[in-house]
Structure prediction request, 684 residues.
Amino acid sequence: MNNSKHIEMANHVWSVGDLLRGDYKQSEYGRVILPLLVLRRLECVLEPTKAAVLEAARLAGQGSGRDALLRAVAGVGFYNTSPITLNGIARDPERCEEQLLEYCGAFSPGAREVLEQYGFAQQVRRLAAAGLLHHVVGRFADLDLRAVERDTGNAVVRGEDGRPVEVVSNHQMGYVFEELIRRFAEQSHETAGEHFTPPEVVRLMVNLLFLADGRASATPGAVRTVLDPACGTGGMLSAAQEQLLRLDPDVPVEVFGQELNPESWAICRSDVMIRGQDPGNIALGNSFTQDGHSGATFDFLLANPPFGVEWRKAREAVEREYRELGERGRFGAGLPRINDGSLLFLQHMIAKMKPVDASGAGGSRIAILFSGSPLFAGAAGSGESRIRQWILESDLLEGIVALPDQLFYNTGISTYLWVLTNRKAERRRGGVVLLDARDHWEKMRRALGDKRKELSEGHIAELTRLYAEAPAVPLGRVDHGAAVPRAAGQKVKVFRNEDFGHRRITVERPLRLRFEVSEAALAALTASKPVRRATDAVAFTKALRPLIGTVWATEADAWRALSSAVAAAGLPWPSGAGFTRALRAALGVVDPEGEVQQSGDGPVPDPGLRDFENVPLGEDPEEYVRREVLPYVPDAWIDHARTKIGYEIPFTRHFYVYTPPRPLEVIDAELKALQAEIRRLMVW
Prediction:
C-alpha cells in the first residue's frame, strides 16, 4: 500500500466523525474510532481461521489448555470465539448493542483488556442511545483490512517472488493508526502535550539512538529489543521498529513499553497488536512502583517522560528500594527532589541496559528527552548532582542535543535530548558531545497549541551528520567558563567527563567585632538562657546599665570594663563558654574595622561573609583561591570540611555568544530621529 493509499484509508476512517458530530465533541472522536478500527483489524486478521477456531472452541470446552490451543489454531496472539461478525451486527439495528458487546466479550483476555481500557462498552451504550451504533459499525464493517490476499479457497495468494500478496500489512496498518492518533492529538492539545511527542523529534531521537558505532544490533543476528518505559500512545516504539527494520529487514524487532494512563496504554497496545507484535509486552502501571519488565534488559531504550512531574505518589516505594537495595536496585545513585522525577526515569532505564561482555558484545543505547532542569538542578552533594556524577564517572553519557523551543504541543520550553550507552566507540570514550540545535527549525504554517516550530527532514539529516562527525574526546581539560565565548556558528563541542565536575568550596572570612552596651544588648542578655543559668540576669544587666553608650575596640577591653562594673555591684563574674558566647552575641557589633575574633581552632568565621566557589576538578582549590579570591579579600580561607563534589552541565554557558552593545552614536542618532518624528507629528 503506497502513501496515498494509507492517507486515503485514514481519511475514510476519519470521516466517521461526520456521524458523531453533535453527539460527540471533536476531542472525543478517538474514543469511538480507535477501538472500532482495532476491532475491525482484529476481525480481518482472524477471518481465515475463524471457522477452525470456532470448531476448536466447541471441542475444547473450558479446559485448562483452551487458551493456548485457540491461540495456536488462530495463528496469532489472540482469538475470538463468537460466530458474530461486524457486518451481521450492522445489519441488525434492533440487537446491535447486545451483539456488539457479546462479540467483544468473546475475544481472548489480552484483546478484551484493551477494549475495556478504552471504555468501549460505555461508548457502545452511548452510540446506541443516540441511534448511531449500527451506522458507525457499518462504516467499519466495509473496511477491507485483511493482512494478505486470499483466493476463493482461503489460500494465501503469492506473488512471483513467492511472498504473500499484502492487502494491508502490519507495517502499513501501523501508519494508518499513527495518522489517526496524530489527528486526534491535534484536536486535543492537552492530550497531545501529555501523551504525544512530535514525530520529527522522534525521528531525530531514533536516528541518534541507532547511529553511534554502526551496529544495528547489540548482538548481530539476534532479536533486537526496544523499551519505552513512558510509552504514551506508542509513537516512539513504532518509529524505532520501522527504523530498525530499514537498517536490517531480516532481523526481527520486539517492542516493549509501559504506560500509566489507561487510555494511552490501550492505544499503544492496540498499535502493537495491529503491527503483529505481542500486546503483552506493553505493561500498564507506574514504572517506579510496578515495574512491568522487572529483571529484563533491552538493546535500545527511548523515552519522553513527563517534564517536571513530582513523584510523591511513588515516594514510599522508591525510597524503600533506595534504602534496602542501594546500588543493587534501580535508584542507587541517588534520589532527586520530589517535584521532578526525570532522573528517576533515567536511572530506571540504565538499570535495564544489557551488560557488555569481555569481547565487547552486548550493551545498550538510550535516548531520552528532558527539560533543562536535569542538566544543572541541585547543588553539589544533592541527589541530582550525585546522579549526574555517577552517570559521568561511569562514562555512560555519550551526548546531549539542545533542541529549539516551541517544539511541543503543551509547552514552549527548550528541551534536551540525552544519548547514553555502555558501549561507546573508542573515540567517544571518556567524553561527552554537546550539539547546539536551537537554531535548526522552521516555522509551522499553523500553530498547534504551544508548538510553533518544527524540524524539517533537512534539519534532522544535518543534526544526525553533525553528531556523527563530532571531534574525538580531547586529552586535556576543556575550559567551559563563560569568559571564553564560542565562535558564531559553532554547533558542536566535545568535553571530557571530568570537565563537568567541580568542588564546591566554602570560603570563610573572619568575624570582626566592636563591643558596645545598648538597651537592645541588655534586653538580649536578660532573655539569654546561658546568662540566666550562670547568674541573676536581672541584677547582672542592672550592673551594666551605667555603661550604655560605651564602645570598646577589643574584646579584652570590653570584658575588663564589664567585669569591673559587675564587681562594683557585688556580683561574681560568671564563667563558662556558653556565657562567653552569649555575651559576645549580645554586645558584639559587626565592624569591618573591628577586632578579629578567635577560637581554639583559629579565627571565628563570619556567616554573613561566607561565600561559595565552584572549582573545576582538575584545579587545586588553594591555587584557585590564591588567584581568584585573595587579591580582593586577603584574610579569606577555605573550610575544607565543607567541600563537596558536584556535577552539572551548563549547556547555555558553553555555547554563549557575546553580542557587543550598539555604539552610543547609533543609539543617539535613533533618539534624535524619533524626537524629530514626534515634533513633525505634533505640528499636524
User: Anything to note?
Assistant: The radius of gyration is 35 Å. The chain has a mean pLDDT of 87. Residues 148 and 167 are 5 Å apart (CA to CA).
